[in-house]
Design goal:
The complex is a heterodimer of chains A (163) and B (185).
Chain A lengths: L21 H18 L1 E5 H19 L5 H10 L4 H14 L7 E5 L11 E6 L18 H17 L2
Antiparallel strand pairs in A: 1-3, 2-3
Helix pairs in contact in A: 1-2, 2-3, 2-4
Chain B lengths: L9 H18 L26 H10 L4 H4 L12 H8 L12 E3 L6 E3 L5 H22 L10 E4 L13 E4 L12
The chains are: A mainly alpha (163), B mainly alpha (185).
Chain lengths: 163, 185
């Protein structure tokens, strides 16, 4: 009985194919993770950002273990090609994300790239970065019709309850 | 597959050379008439085609029905002209038309059009430009490559003082008024 088969169909495969080979795919993603840790916000094709997101968040989970942990240090050593970023990861990012249980990155889609390929682009950033925010949280305005009606209803209820 | 024969045995090499010589002589008997080495650049001579049958059979084949040899050049071709009505049905079928997008909205900040699930292009360009200038300041402060400090960073604009929250952080100064969309926290 065959337990596993390398099918020509890719049903259920979760990892995308990038680059020239699986090793090249890892190198590509590694470069992106390094860039994200360095610049805290990068703009790249959506597929790459989506693929890289999982690796970046797991790296931060490893970093939260502390730099005395051997596995964490080896992971950081592999994934960050620029070695001054290892210090930043353990001393800046790990304390920053210590209170959060997960989801340390934000992935937002951008208008398609201007070149000939019109690729679907995304910007991925670490939460809590010092750069200007990409999306302003919109407070619901008081001037909308529904809110004005609700305000009137609340005032009527108060006037009826007061005497 | 190339066979690397380093000929460790000189007898083996001599045997192979003799075999190869015999093969050559048997295949090309005329060429090998006493010349060593036989191969060199020579004039190309057009070899004989198959024995020409046409001289004898020219009269016969024109009278015959198209033989099997000629039927392999039958190819598919349309029999009738497609009318414009049929053409229109095919060209204007809903699956062939471009889908209309119903997810376009107005950005509440700047009023440009944006897709609902995508960031506004104008607002993003604004933020991108400001990030570029901040990064230039960072680069100037760091001086060289691979000098990332192990502390947080905070960006301050003209006339702003670091608060007690920005205690151990690296301060990046931008020489302009704080933009309204960059809220200090």
């Amino acid at each position: 009985m065959k337990l596993s088969v390398a099918a020509a169909v890719s049903h259920g495969r979760v990892y995308r194919r990038f680059g020239l080979s699986p090793r090249s795919r890892l190198d590509l993603l590694r470069n992106l993770v390094t860039a994200l840790v360095r610049h805290e916000r990068i703009e790249t094709p959506w597929a790459r950002a989506d693929e890289m997101r999982g690796y970046a968040e797991r790296l931060i989970d490893y970093a939260k273990r502390g730099d005395k942990d051997d596995r964490a240090m080896r992971m950081a050593d592999f994934w960050l090609t620029e070695k001054d970023l290892i210090h930043k990861l353990f001393k800046v990012l790990a304390p920053r994300f210590q209170p959060h249980p997960g989801s340390y990155t934000r992935l937002l889609q951008i208008p398609n790239r201007d070149g000939l390929d019109r690729a679907k682009m995304a910007v991925i950033e670490l939460k809590g970065n010092p750069l200007p925010p990409l999306v302003r949280p919109r407070r619901d305005s008081d001037k909308t019709l529904l809110n004005q009606l609700l305000k009137g209803y609340r005032q009527d209820a108060q006037r009826a309850a007061a005497p | 597959m190339a066979v690397l024969v380093r000929s460790p045995l000189p007898r083996l090499r001599a045997l192979l050379q003799r075999c190869w010589g015999r093969l050559e002589r048997s295949l090309w008997p005329g060429v090998f008439g006493g010349q060593n080495p036989p191969w060199g650049p020579a004039l190309a001579v057009q070899g004989l085609a198959l024995v020409p049958q046409g001289i004898n059979d020219a009269g016969e084949s024109s009278a015959e029905a198209p033989s099997l040899l000629e039927s392999i050049v039958w190819m598919a071709a349309p029999k009738q002209r497609r009318t414009i009505e049929v053409n229109r049905c095919r060209r204007r079928h809903p699956t062939k038309l471009i889908e209309i997008k119903r997810n376009i909205d107005v950005c509440p900040e700047c009023g440009n059009l944006k897709q609902k699930h995508v960031l506004c292009g104008y607002c993003y360009a604004k933020v991108k430009e400001e990030t570029r200038l901040i990064r230039m300041e960072i680069h100037r402060k760091e001086g060289g490559p691979f000098n990332v400090p192990a502390v947080e960073t905070v960006v301050l604009y003209e006339g702003e003082k670091p608060t007690e929250k920005d205690e151990g952080k690296r301060i990046i100064e931008r020489a302009r008024k704080r933009p309204s969309w960059f809220v200090q926290n």
